[in-house]
Write a structure and sequence with these properties.
The structure is a single chain. By secondary structure, the protein is mainly α. The chain folds into 2 domains: about 35-230 and about 235-265, Cytochrome Bc1 Complex, Chain C; about 285-390, Helix Hairpins (Orthogonal Bundle), CATH 1.10.287. It has helices at about 10-15, 20-30, 45-65, 75-80, 85-115, 125-145, 150-160, 170-180, 185-215, 235-260, 290-300, 300-315, 320, 335-355, 360-385, 400; strands at about 35, 230-235. A two-stranded antiparallel ribbon has the order 1-2. Helix 3 (about 45-65) runs antiparallel to helix 5 (about 85-115), helix 6 (about 125-145) crosses helix 7 (about 150-160) and helix 14 runs antiparallel to helix 15 (about 360-385). The relative contact order is 0.12. It is a multi-pass membrane protein. The main subunits of complex b-c1 are: cytochrome b, cytochrome c1 and the Rieske protein.
């Protein structure tokens, strides 16, 4: 941080008393060296952070107008849409921002899976990312209940009832979640309070995530560590400009959805007031929960289905120890690349199967896709670690970037295993 310099008198005065500018320079400025070969796939980390800020700001504005009561919640949302100045815009940004948050984070996760960003020494960084995903899911679920439409009410009833599968204490857990003996006003109140609180908890975990990232720096497309100044460039201005361009594209797409297709990713039944006496023909969660919903329904036993659903996320925590290949990037692992594509197809199939009724052919497809999901992590990745022969790695990041511009390292023999 001591390398930061400024001629501005105000900045100097503040810096002397609180070195915030040198901290920012060290974290995201010219004082933070980054691999010189990062692609636009590395934009999605910063996009996730910006989307989180958008969600918090719009959420605070909506909370000022929302009424957390079963008799008034639905009407208060309609009042926001019709009577509050630009309430429709704030709500549509918040509603679609949630979907875009998951889109960005899912791309961020799949990028990490392909390029081995979960491998040593970044295991804790990866695990904190999985914690963020879980917190996002909990926050999104509780937020989906707040409009108090048909899908909100019945989604809350179905998902909270899953905890009744827990042996011995299951029924007590459900009563505690509901605040009574059915989904009612106490449930809505506590979901609203937690939905407001949890984004700030996510911010705390994001700070830890960034802290862990700065310990060893970003991974990169070829998955080897920087070996000198020739392999890195300052984060600013090179990647701040790249992130700014990515943000511009992201905001254009978000604006297109908000203004032209604001309800495309929602469910029409949620524009019907909640009615405990009328069950929707087909209860489905939001699209970003559908793969996990398919896993839950694919297993006939309720308890095993709940274990499989939570296990599909929990398995990501131990991924660094399941994939023992010394090569990080899928770019140099031909067999891994093939199975990664199959895994992506499997995730899409699970998502679509989760949107269909749990019967007939789609139930069988969901069961096969669920089995493959766990086989990928528990069988295929460990076996690939033993039997796959990866391609030779470059001797440095600068070699493929500058076509041999790695200096004296260009003639060094390729190492099959880089220091983690």
């Amino acid at each position: 941080m001591s390398g930061f310099q400024s001629n501005n008198a105000v900045i100097k005065w503040v810096e002397h008393r609180m070195p915030i500018f040198s901290f920012l320079d060290h974290s995201v400025g010219s004082g933070y060296p980054s691999p010189r070969n990062l692609s636009y796939l590395w934009n999605f980390g910063s996009l996730a952070g910006i989307t989180l800020v958008i969600m918090i700001l719009t959420g605070i504005l909506l909370a000022m107008q929302y009424t957390a009561h079963v008799d008034y919640a639905f009407e208060s949302v309609e009042r926001i849409m019709r009577d509050v100045n630009y309430g429709w815009l704030i709500r549509y940004i918040h509603m679609n921002g949630g979907s875009f948050f998951f889109i960005v984070v899912y791309i961020h996760i799949f990028r990490g899976l392909y390029y081995g960003s979960y491998k040593a020494p970044r295991e804790l960084l990866w695990m904190l990312g999985v914690v963020i995903l879980l917190l996002m899911m909990a926050t999104a679920f509780m937020g989906y209940v707040l409009p108090w439409g048909q899908m909100s009410f019945w989604g809350a009833k179905v998902i909270t009832n899953l905890f009744s599968a827990v042996p011995i204490f299951g029924e007590q857990i459900v009563v505690w979640l509901w605040g009574g003996f059915t989904v009612d006003n106490p449930t809505l109140n506590r979901f609203f309070a937690l939905h407001y609180l949890m984004p700030f908890i996510i911010v705390g975990v994001v700070i830890l995530h960034i802290w862990a990232l700065h310990r060893f720096g970003s991974n990169n497309p070829i998955g080897i560590d920087t070996k000198g100044p020739q392999d890195s460039i300052p984060f600013h201005p090179y990647y701040t400009v790249k992130d700014a361009f990515g943000l511009g594209v992201f905001l254009l797409v978000l604006a297109a959805v908000v203004f032209y297709a604001p309800n495309y990713m929602g469910h029409p039944d949620n524009y019907i007031p909640a009615n405990p006496l009328s069950t929707p023909a087909h209860i489905v969660p939001e699209w970003y929960f559908l793969p996990f919903y398919a896993i839950l329904r694919s297993i006939p036993d309720k308890l095993m289905g709940v274990i499989a659903m939570f296990g599909s996320i929990a398995i990501l925590f131990v991924l660094p120890w399941l994939d023992r290949s010394p090569v990080r990037s899928g770019r140099f692992r031909p067999l891994f690349r093939l199975f990664f594509v199959l895994f992506m197809v499997d995730a899409v199939v699970l998502g679509y199967a989760g949107s269909q009724p749990a019967e007939g052919a789609w139930l069988r497809i969901a069961q096969v896709a669920t089995a493959y999901y766990f086989i990928h992590f528990l069988v295929i990745l460990p076996l690939l670690s033993v039997f796959e022969t990866p391609k030779p790695l470059p001797t440095s990041i600068s070699e493929p970037v500058l076509k041999g511009g790695g200096g004296s390292m260009a003639g060094a023999p390729a190492k099959p295993m880089e220091k983690a």
